[in-house]
Specification:
By secondary structure, the chain is of the alpha/beta class. The protein has 8 helices and 13 strands. The chain has 2 domains: about 170 residues, Thiolase/Chalcone synthase (Peroxisomal Thiolase, Chain A, domain 1); about 130 residues, Thiolase/Chalcone synthase (Peroxisomal Thiolase, Chain A, domain 1, 3-Layer(aba) Sandwich), CATH 3.40.47. The longest helix has 23 residues.
Length: about 300
């Protein structure tokens, strides 16, 4: 059964002091910590492209797993909505070349934002199992610094650049369990790019997350025959501190601490936020069962159970 064998990441060391940004817009430290949740926002270098972030994450994965031969990779999926240059060719093809992977690799992009990692896990698992492939790379990289207006107080204090790489293969400790997905394109206008600049209706996005995500997680648990007490941790998209806290309170008023919140040094990294949590908190921990959920652009959402025997 194809599952998660390892996760690595690349987070640029350069970036923005978010408290300085907050002061510019009249926001105090309490607001920045309690509502935004990020004191630092990593930023790629001007000369770095999306594919370069992908390559850095993949190389970190190979360095952490010397038994993984890059030439054995036969599936590569890149989750991004901000690919190289103008998005053609697909970023996965560029990553294949830069990493020197075999030309026999199946490589393609998934154009999804904050729900993209969860969608990507099941897309690559199904693709690999259907085609009899052995080793897959699921890479996330969505540098919103390419599209965010630094003068837009609704977005510039939220987003950080990062990339992750997940090794998918047989014999993995972490397996993929039940999953549920959803799309509501009637809300597309709330998160979109116009003339190369990102726009977000923060109030509508907050309301969407608060209404949709707790109900979706309950639906997932019901489908899995589980109770919230059976879940060791909930790793949901780190949209902002306010969103994570509100979803946690709405879903589980008695144990909101089960919802992991860790975005102080990264901010909202879009499709990379969930795998960053998993890399840091799940892989080396004592957890047996984790619920993940991503939600955002589309509007789109996806939730799943990850477990180990």
């Amino acid at each position: 059964m194809i599952g998660i064998k390892s996760i690595a990441s690349y987070v640029p060391t350069a970036g923005l002091d978010n408290y300085v940004q907050g002061a510019k817009f009249g926001k105090d430290e309490e607001f920045m910590f309690g509502k935004i949740g990020a004191s630092f926002l990593p930023r790629k270098a001007p000369e770095q492209e999306t594919s370069d972030l992908c390559v850095e994450a993949a190389r970190a994965l190979f360095a952490n797993n010397p038994d993984l031969d890059p030439q054995s990779i036969d599936a590569l999926i890149v989750v991004t909505q901000n690919g190289d240059e103008e998005g053609l060719p697909h970023t996965a093809a560029i990553v294949q070349s830069k990493l020197g992977l075999s030309t026999r690799v199946a490589a393609f992009d998934i154009s999804l934002g904050c729900s993209g990692y969860v969608y990507g896990l099941y897309a690559i698992k199904g693709f690999m199992e259907a085609a009899g492939l052995k080793n897959g790379l699921l890479i996330t990289a969505d540098p919103y610094s390419k599209i965010v207006d630094p003068e837009d107080r609704n977005t510039t204090m939220l987003f950080g650049d990062a990339a992750t790489a997940t090794w998918m293969a047989d014999g993995a400790i972490w397996k993929l369990g039940e999953a549920r997905f959803g799309t509501d394109g009637s809300g597309a206008e709330h998160l979109k790019v116009s003339d190369g600049t990102f726009f977000m209706n923060g109030r509508q996005v907050f309301n969407f997350a608060l209404v949709k995500v707790p109900a979706h997680l309950h639906e997932l648990l019901d489908a899995s025959g589980l109770q919230s007490s059976d879940i060791d941790a909930f790793c949901i998209h780190q949209g902002s501190a306010a969103i994570v806290d509100a979803v946690a309170r709405r879903f589980e008023e008695h144990h909101p601490e089960k919802f992991v919140k860790d975005m102080l040094e990264t901010g909202n990294t879009v499709s990379s936020s969930v795998p960053l949590l998993l890399q840091k908190h799940m892989l080396d921990g004592s957890w047996k069962r984790v619920a993940v959920s991503g939600f955002g652009v589309g509007l789109s959402w996806a939730s799943a159970i990850l477990y180990r025997d």
